[in-house]
Amino acid sequence: MEDKIVTEFTLFVRSQSSNSAKLVQLVHACFTDSVIPNQTPFQIQCCPCCPSQPELEGKGDVMGAKSLKHSEHFLLLRVPRSRMIQVATLLRPELKHNVDQLTYAVDTLTPGQKAWLAEFAIRMHLFPDRAFTALMDLLQKTRSSEQHEANMLLTLQRWDLVSDLILRHDKPARRELSRLHYLSFHLFPKSELLRDYFGDQVGFYFKWMRTYSLSLLFPTGVGLWRTMATWIVHRFSDLPEETQLDKDISSPWLVTIRLVYTVFMIFWALVCAKLWSRQHERLIESWSANPLLEHVANDMPWLFSMLDTRPTYHGQWRMSQVTGLMEIHFPARERRWRYMASGLMISGCLAVAGLVNVVLLNLEGYMSTGRSSWLCLTCVSQFASPGAIFDPAGTGMLPYLPGIMHSLLVFVMNQIIFRRIAEYLTEFENHQTVEAHERALIIKRFLFEMIDAYGCLAYLGFVLADRVALRSLLLTMLITDSVRRLVQECLIPLVQYRIRVWQHHRAFGLRKRQEEKAGETGPADYTPLTAIDRDVCADQYEPFDDYLEMILLHGYLVVFAFLTPSLAAPIALVSTVLESHFDAFKLLWITQRPTPRLLVRQTSVWLALLAAQAWLSILTNVGLWIVSMSVASFDLGLVSPSLLYLLVEHGLVAAGLVLHFAVSDVPVDVRDARRARAFHRSSLFPTTASRA
């Protein structure tokens, strides 16, 4: 079979010194003559942006100087099929002599899984002796055996010589995927096609979006029932006509309807969290059925820790107790001290975020000495008093200005200030792997986003007990967030990308016309910059914002379910379906192609946050119910509100725990498959069976 190119990567050289062109050639030599850990020669096709020195000398100094005139130096790394088969033997050594089965396993991988295997192959490279010596001489560094034996790409990144690998788009495959995706109308993006091309983790995101959209049909139906039941109560009861539908708890029947809806939403969230965990485990087992990946994705997490080491991870060199090779070690006790310092800093930032929200609420007129004297800032709230410039009952645009300022300031705080603080603190904690680093960063940013998203709602619900204002704000946030996501994540990046591509092509066209006018031709090993125009112009794909928006949307429905409008679930359903199509379009045509990742046996941090919100909803909704009863002057009998809160909250928590322990996170068939794999790998079981 033809040894065709399977995957291509772009590797940018960061050095801007006069030796950049020579550095490109040395990095090119490192990849061309490198070896893998078993000292087997391992060559991949590496095309530099700059011509080699012999060809420069053949064309003269003037020609060489002009050919090297570009700001960003890079290499194209092409991994052929034969090299992927070669590195596959490191994952399954027992298949080394069964070439047919090994070849079949590689050929049946999806394009996304092949890209993961190709990146694995590149990251396994070790320095060749001659190229390593030349590189150390150029950089004027002291040669050390630890650096020589370390991962080559990781070492180059630690020296800040190269960027991370950028997976290039397969243009024919992307065009065909786009054609199939938009060929006919379908309610959800084709997750299997997207998973094949972009990898398993992106495929899981779209699978989860589809499952979440379908699960929203149940709250939509129950919300419709709640609206109809509320209308019937108002129609056939003696309540005053001025009572607003679905916004009143003055009747025991209305309270009962709301309680039924609230309890349903709480257990709907708990059941969904359990089902999503089971879906995650089932997809891990299904998508790792290939013989090459069945052990990697399920039973070799240490492999990912070894290959997923961050370039900025620092510590002391020591002999690894697992691999026997030299590795960087950072003491756990020192990391714990850094965790404590980071936690104190985060607590201070959360306090600042809360203070900013209090100031903005004063400016919007929600704070007053009569309603919440302990949070009222007279110097600020006076501008929202009756007759003042920001009086909520005033006319014109000025009363809406504090709300606009609130949204803009929250956006600036989250996306600029707190984001940088979270990134700095996570870097300070010095996590070894990219996975651990991202997990810590996600938790920090979620805390900041949660304070800004839920802080005002909690104040309106628990302090002011203003049901009308809370429902109005919830509905406004749901609608505005949906519109903002469309504009901010799809339209604006698309326009920016097209402008950058136009500027890039214009500059390259001008340079090409000048070279043609001078009668110049590029050397044989020269790669034109147009070959990587998408890598230069497109932004990197960040799944954080996509997941975070869906979690906050889920929180609006669940955390404040007792006072959530009936329209919230249908709006969330439509928003989720549109969001899935926006994300598919963004991945195909706006961002860089994300480096594929396999699904492995570990708890997803996003699913853990969704489950945490489900448990939090028990506390918040019971509290909203008790506060609403107190404000409406309902007769609770001899039971105090605090005791009633504890009884109801403990009862719902107990029911949730029964559900949690009654339904396993791992389906039975998945658990049996994993046990069967462990049984066949073990040599003790056959021995025991034969003795019996």
What's the quick description here?
It contains 28 helices and six strands. It is mainly alpha-helical and 692 residues long. Helix 23 (543-558) packs antiparallel against helix 24.
Textual characterization of the structure:
The chain is mainly alpha-helical. Among the domains are: about 5-170, no CATH class; about 190-285 and about 530-690, no CATH class. Helix content is about 65%, strand content about 5%. The chain is built from 28 helices and six strands. The protein has helices spanning about 20-30, 55-60, 60-65, 80-90, 100-105, 110-125, 130-140, 145-150, 150-160, 170-180, 190-200, 200-215, 215-235, 250-285, 295-300, 300-305, 330-365, 380, 400-430, 435-465, 465-515, 535, 545-560, 570-590, 605-630, 640-660, 670-680, 685-690, and strands at about 5-15, 45-50, 75-80, 165, 315-320, 325-330. The strands form two sheets. A four-stranded antiparallel sheet has the order 2-3-1-4. The two termini are about 50 Å apart. About 30% of the residues are buried. Mean pLDDT is about 80; it is low at about 55-70, about 240-245 and about 685-690. This is Anoctamin. Belongs to the anoctamin family. Pfam families: Anoctamin. InterPro entries: Anoctamin, Anoctamin_TM. It is found in: Membrane.
